[in-house]
Amino acid sequence: MARKKSLVPTYDQFIKPVIQALISLGGSGSNEEINNKVYEIVGLSDEILQIPHGKEETKTEVEYRLYWTRTYLKKAGLIDNSERGIWSLTMPDTDIDNVDPSEVVKIVRMQLAKESEKADKTKSAGGSVEKLIEPSDNEIEWKQRLLSTLYEISPSSFERLSQRILRESGFVQVEVTGKAGDGGIDGKGIVRVGGFLSFHVIFQCKRYKYSIGPNLIRDFRGAMQGRADKGLFITTGSFTREAMKEATRDGAPPIDLVDGELLCDKLKELKLGVVTKQIENVEIDDSWFKKV
Fold first, then answer.
1. Per residue in 221-265, pLDDT tens?
2. What is the model's pTM?
3. Sign, CA torsion 169/32/135/82
């Protein structure tokens, strides 16, 4: 496994490709859009893209390192992200030739050293110090724990959870209809756009740990033919690049894909089983006491 991971570019080697991806996307993009564009730019094979980061296989090694890349670029002030998880270039006219990956790493490490020094001083003064954790590490940790929890629930519970997510997201008449011989269709619903347009959606949900290939997407599309305007495939796992291409193939009914990462983000956004707590950070102003 260690030898396989050595084939994956390091986070600093992804710095220029990530910026190049954002430039080609018009200056902004979601994690999925950026990652897919980086895969094209670097020319990563499916074999490398499927190398898991850990035993749980909830995150691939490439995705993990791209998290670190975005974290470093954000700390260096080259990119930023919104509350909705969209990343953007801080300077639209960023010139890729002027970006030095080694300089980015140097700047960020200096920032981390200063933050660590400040935290040590606060701690020695008796203040409460929040542990310095990279955002990417923290995000990966809670998503892994959430996915591990989802793996433990029954298939029927996962279907009901998918139903709840769709209802909370604005779908109406959402029903779980999964039964043997139904081509993998687990439910259906209607989504309204702007109060005027409505689309009938059929969904399938798979509580998988591994990646879903194009065959399952084709089977699902065959089952939904003539029964809905769109298809929605929800999984705790991930989708291969071929599966993603199949889902958006020209001339075929479109299928939207929700992988484990997006599923975690949606549960957090809707506050379904995920609670976000604010941590109090107490700092001591030594200069104030010297003036007493």
1. 998 888 888 999 999 988 888 898 999 898 888 899 999 988 998
2. 0.63
3. negative
DSSP state of 97: G
With DSSP H G I counted as helix, E B as strand and the rest as coil, what are the percentages for the chain, rounded to 5?
50, 15, 35
Whether 207 contacts 236, CB under 8 Å: yes
Check: CB of residue 240 under 8 Å from CB of residue 135.
Answer: no
What is each CA distance from 291 to 126, 268, 283, 285, in whole angstroms? 19, 46, 17, 11
Region of residue 204 (phi > 0: left; psi between -120 and 50: alpha; otherwise: beta): beta
Place of tokens 């080259």: 78
* 135 — pLDDT class (breaks 50, 70, 90): very low
Q: How many whole angstroms separate alpha carbon 229 and alpha carbon 193? A: 13
Report the candidate in 250, 239, 158, 245 with the shortest Cα–Cα distance to residue 204. 158
The answer to whether the CB of 23 falls within 8 A of the CB of 33 is no
One-letter amino acid at 270 equals L
Contact 235, 258 (CB under 8 A): yes
> pLDDT by residue (tens digit) across 11-35?
999 999 999 999 999 999 988 889 9
Contacts of residue 178, defined as CB under 8 A and 6 or more positions apart, other chains included, come to 159, 185, 186, 187
Task: Specify whether the CB–CB gap between 41 and 21 falls below 8 A.
Answer: yes
Dihedral pair phi/psi, residue 234, rounded to 5°: -110, 130
